[in-house]
Amino acid sequence: MSTYRSILLAVAASLCGIACADNAPSASDSGPSGEDLKGDRATTRPLTFHPIAPRHAPSGSARTTLLAALDALGRVAREGTATRQQRLADETLARIQAGDVLIGSLDDARGTDLWHMCKDLDDQRACPTATPPSDPAWAGTAALFAALRRDLDGYTWGNRLYFNFAVTVAPEALAATLVHEVDHAFNRSECWYYEVYFAHVVDPTLAFLEEYRAFVAECVYKRGKGATALRCDASAHVELREREYGFSPDLSSLLEPDELARGTIVIAQGLFADDGRFGWLIPSPLSWPSDFAECEAPDR
Ligand SMILES: [Zn+2]
Question: What range does the domain containing 101 cover?
């Protein structure tokens, strides 16, 4: 399915997936204890997010759900069963609280981001140009927005996380989705995803790596001490298969010859080591991108 070609699916699939956070703790009864109020951890700061369009910040039930998802992240950061899980939740929450990622509605998309959304639709006749528009306020057409709302549950580009708030989602599932999407932002997935960038022709190997990593992050977040490299490797493959990404990666371009027999578990182990070889798992501020401008020389 063509809608499963790229980053847009990540949000859509995660929001739709009932298995996203099947063992994530409830956000309903959490709250900081005295022991938590130390240092500069994300969990010690008020729950907040930074809107993409401040004049149209998510409100009402959308805001309530977002804050409950942040509460869920904070609870895992405090009470998770593994250090890696706690760090992942805490740093994901911290990037959101710091405004390193921005959150808004699909309706807020303008300019370059709206153009990239358009390019991932089946029908690209609404995309007016072969490259992003020079006008950052380009607002497309009513027909384009109708198509986006119909086809997408969400979309991530750069550090902007757009959600279709007409879609109902549980806070625990949204928390797992935020882990997934912050991983994409952290690793600048949009700059690696495409073999032909402006045409949005996916590179099946590199796009696989971007999604595989984000699903390993989800696995670490959801499974805690049960998240081994072996289990998260298997989990990522299940997610990619069930959500019909359809990637056929050439692992010989990612792994050394003597690693090929072990397959993608090598990638999971690298991510668990957080050595940067296959991108980064824990979105620490020290490794966070300095900016999220349009990708430079993205075609390979
Ligand atoms: Zn994804």
Answer: 2-273
